[in-house]
C-alpha cells in the first residue's frame, strides 16, 4: 500500500466523499424507480427480484467503499 502525501490525501478524500455522495443519490433514485414498476403495470415478481439484486449490489458497494483509508 502506498501512502499519499498530505495534499494528495486531502484531494483523494474529497473525491471519495463525492463518490459516496453520488452513490447515495443514485441508490436513492434507483430504489424509487424500482418501487414504481408494479404500480405502473410491471411484473411484481421481477420487480421484487430487481430489489433483491439491488440490495446485493448495495452490499458490494459498501464492501468496496469501506476500504477508503487514504491508501492507493
From TrEMBL:
Q: Does the keyword Nucleotide-binding apply?
A: yes
Alphabetically ordered keywords of this record:
Nucleotide-binding
Where on the tree of life does the source sit, at the highest rank?
A: Bacteria
Q: Name one Pfam family in it.
A: Acb2_Tad1_hairpin
Tell me which residues make up the Acb2/Tad1 hairpin domain. Answer: 3-66
Is the Nucleotide-binding keyword given for this protein?
yes
Record's protein name: Acb2/Tad1 hairpin domain-containing protein
Amino acid at each position: 500500500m502506498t501512502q499519499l502525501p498530505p495534499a494528495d490525501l486531502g484531494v483523494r478524500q474529497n473525491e471519495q466523499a463525492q463518490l459516496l455522495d453520488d452513490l447515495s443519490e443514485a441508490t436513492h433514485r434507483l430504489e424509487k424507480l424500482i418501487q414504481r414498476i408494479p404500480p405502473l403495470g410491471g411484473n411484481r415478481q421481477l420487480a421484487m427480484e430487481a430489489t433483491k439484486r439491488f440490495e446485493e449490489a448495495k452490499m458490494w458497494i459498501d464492501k468496496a467503499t469501506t476500504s477508503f483509508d487514504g491508501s492507493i
